[in-house]
Design goal:
Elements: H1 2-29, E1 39-46, E2 61-68, E3 76-78, E4 85-89, E5 92-96, E6 98-102, E7 105-108, E8 113-115, E9 121-122, E10 128-129, E11 135-141, E12 148-154, E13 169-175, E14 202-204, H2 208-213, E15 216-224, E16 230-241, E17 253-260, E18 270-281, E19 287-289, E20 294-297, E21 301-302, E22 305-306, E23 310-313, E24 318-319, E25 329-335, E26 343-348, E27 353-358, E28 363-368, E29 371-373, E30 381-382, E31 387-389, E32 398-399, E33 403-407, E34 409-411, H3 417-450
Parallel strand pairs: 13-23, 13-24
Antiparallel strand pairs: 1-2, 3-34, 4-33, 5-8, 5-11, 5-29, 6-7, 8-31, 9-10, 11-12, 11-28, 13-25, 14-18, 15-16, 16-17, 17-18, 18-19, 20-23, 21-22, 26-27, 27-28, 29-32, 30-31
Helix pairs in contact: 1-3
Length: about 450
C-alpha cells in the first residue's frame, strides 16, 4: 500500500471518527429530549487494492455508518399531564405534520409520520399536538356503542355539551326488614307492622299522616326528564300482609312501593302514588314476585311533570331478611338519566382512549389512539422533532401487537450519558492516533524526498 496509502487510510480514519463524534454530540445534546432515540456508529473496514494473495492483503481503510436504536426503549416517567402518553414495548404513534394553514386551521397532506414523543397538549383549535409540532392521529368512537367510526384522523375535540338524557331505568337494591319498625310498631302485635288498610293507590296530603306512620322510608334518587330537568324521586315501603306458611293455600309476605308525586305538598295534588306491582317474598327472604325482579312505573309523574315509563330493576338484590333495626337497608340506587353538561377535562387513559369528563359527572370515550409498528423499525428515516417516515427498508406500518399505550407517562431519551462519554473518550483517542499516522507518514515522505539531495 505504501506511504500514500497509509496517509489516505489515516485521513479516512479521521473522517470516520469525526462522523462518530458528530453522532455522540447529537446524542448528548438530546439526552433530555422526550422520546429521542440515540444514533450509534458502526465502522466498516474497506479492502484497499485487488490482491488475492492473502499474504499481500493489507488491513485496509475504514468507513463509518449510523446505526439506529429506534427499537430500544427509553425509561418511562410519570407526569401530571392528563394528555401525555408513552409506548411501553414496541410501536409508534401515528402523527401528521401540517403543510399549511387555511382559515386559521392546519391543512394536512395525508402522509403519516411516526413518533414515540408523547408530550401532547391541546392547541387553540382543539388539536392534540406534541412539543415538536406533530398532530396526534386517532379513530373516532361512536358515543353510544364505543365502536370505531371511520378512519384515523388528526384528533380534534370541540367543547360540545353532553346531551341531556331522560331517566329510563333505576337500579334499586335493598333489604326490607321482615318486622318493619313503623311509627305504629309494637313488638308483639304483627298487625302494627302493616300498612294502614285505609291507604289506597294514591295518598292525598290530608291522608299522609296515616300513611307515614304505617310505612318505612325507602330511598331517594335524582331523576331527569328529556330536557335534563332534575326531580327528586322519594320512595317509601309499606308491608301489606304477613305471610302464613301454614295457611291453605300458604301466603307470603307482601309489600307495596310508593313514590312521592307531589314534593311541594300543596294539599291538592296526590302526594304519594303506589307502584302498580305487589312485592312478595318467600320464607327464605328472597323475592318471588315480580319473578324477573323488574317493575315498570307507568307515567312516572313528579310535581306535575310526566317523565314517562321508568323501569325499576331490582334483580336478586331485593330481599326481606331479618333485621333488628327494622328499617330498609339500601345497597344500590342508580339511574341512567343525566342533565346536560359542559366538558371540563380530557385525558388519555391506558390503552390510548381519549375520554372527556363533563360537569354533570358523566364521561364519554371520544377517540382511540392506534399504535403501529414495523418489521424493521431501525430502517425508518429520521425526521425533525423525533419523528420518522416509512421507507422501503422498514416496510409498511401495521397494528402493534407487542406494545401498549400508558397514560400520564412520558418516555425519556434512550441516551446513556455515561456510555456516551466513554465513547467520546475512545473516539478522541482514536482520532489522535490517526493524526499521528498522518504526521508519521508526512515525516517518512520528507525523509524519502531528502534521499535525492
Amino acid at each position: 500500500m505504501g506511504i500514500f496509502g497509509a496517509l489516505t487510510t489515516a485521513v479516512a480514519g479521521l473522517q470516520a471518527q469525526s462522523f462518530a463524534l458528530e453522532n455522540i454530540s447529537g446524542n448528548i445534546a438530546n439526552s433530555q429530549t422526550t422520546g429521542f432515540k440515540r444514533t450509534d456508529t458502526s465502522f466498516q473496514d474497506l479492502l484497499m487494492g485487488g490482491s488475492f494473495n492473502p499474504q499481500r492483503q493489507t488491513s485496509g481503510s475504514v468507513a463509518a455508518f449510523s446505526r439506529a436504536t429506534n427499537d430500544l426503549q427509553g425509561a418511562l416517567v410519570n407526569t401530571s399531564s392528563a394528555t401525555s402518553i408513552a409506548v411501553s414495548g414496541s410501536g409508534f404513534f401515528a402523527v401528521s405534520a401540517p403543510k399549511g394553514v387555511s382559515d386559521g386551521l392546519p391543512v394536512f397532506d395525508g402522509v403519516d409520520a411516526y413518533t414515540r414523543r408523547g408530550d401532547f397538549q391541546f392547541d387553540r383549535n382543539g388539536y392534540l399536538v406534541n412539543g415538536a409540532g406533530y398532530y396526534l392521529k386517532g379513530v373516532a368512537l361512536d358515543p353510544d356503542s364505543g365502536n370505531p367510526v371511520g378512519s384515523s384522523q388528526p384528533i380534534r375535540l370541540a367543547k360540545d355539551f353532553f346531551p341531556a338524557a331522560a331517566t329510563t331505568n333505576i337500579n334499586y337494591k335493598l333489604n326490607l326488614p321482615n318486622k318493619p319498625q313503623t311509627n305504629n310498631f309494637e313488638a308483639g302485635d304483627p298487625s302494627s307492622w302493616l300498612l294502614d288498610p285505609g291507604v289506597g293507590d294514591t295518598v292525598a296530603a290530608q291522608d299522609s299522616e296515616a300513611f307515614l306512620d304505617s310505612s318505612i322510608e325507602g330511598e331517594s334518587v335524582t331523576v331527569y326528564d328529556k330536557k335534563g330537568q332534575a326531580y327528586d324521586l322519594q320512595m317509601r315501603w309499606g308491608k301489606v300482609s304477613n305471610g302464613d306458611p301454614d295457611a291453605t293455600p300458604p301466603t307470603e309476605d307482601t309489600w307495596a312501593l310508593f313514590y312521592k308525586s307531589d314534593n311541594k305538598a300543596t294539599g291538592t295534588d296526590t302526594e304519594w302514588t303506589r307502584v302498580d306491582q305487589d312485592y312478595t317474598f318467600g320464607e327464605d327472604g328472597k323475592l318471588t314476585s315480580p319473578a324477573n325482579g323488574k317493575v315498570t312505573i307507568d307515567n312516572l309523574t313528579i310535581d306535575g311533570a310526566n317523565l314517562g315509563d321508568v323501569q325499576m330493576t331490582h334483580g336478586a338484590g331485593l330481599t326481606q331478611y331479618g333485621d333488628t333495626s327494622g328499617v330498609a337497608s339500601t345497597t344500590e340506587i342508580t339511574q341512567d338519566g343525566a342533565a346536560s353538561g359542559q366538558m371540563v377535562a380530557v385525558e388519555i387513559s391506558d390503552g390510548g382512549v381519549v375520554t372527556a369528563s363533563y360537569s354533570n359527572g358523566k364521561t364519554r370515550a371520544l377517540f382511540r389512539v392506534p399504535l403501529v409498528d414495523f418489521n424493521a423499525p431501525n430502517q425508518l428515516s429520521r425526521l425533525d422533532g423525533g419523528a420518522f417516515a416509512a421507507t422501503a427498508g422498514s416496510g409498511l406500518a401495521f397494528s402493534a401487537e407487542n406494545g401498549a399505550i400508558v397514560g400520564q407517562t412520558l418516555e425519556q431519551s434512550n441516551v446513556d450519558i455515561a456510555d456516551e462519554f466513554t465513547k467520546l473518550i475512545v473516539t478522541q483517542q482514536a482520532y489522535s492516533a490517526n493524526t499521528r499516522v498522518v504526521s508519521t507518514s508526512d515525516t517518512m515522505m520528507q525523509d524519502t524526498l531528502n534521499m535525492i539531495r
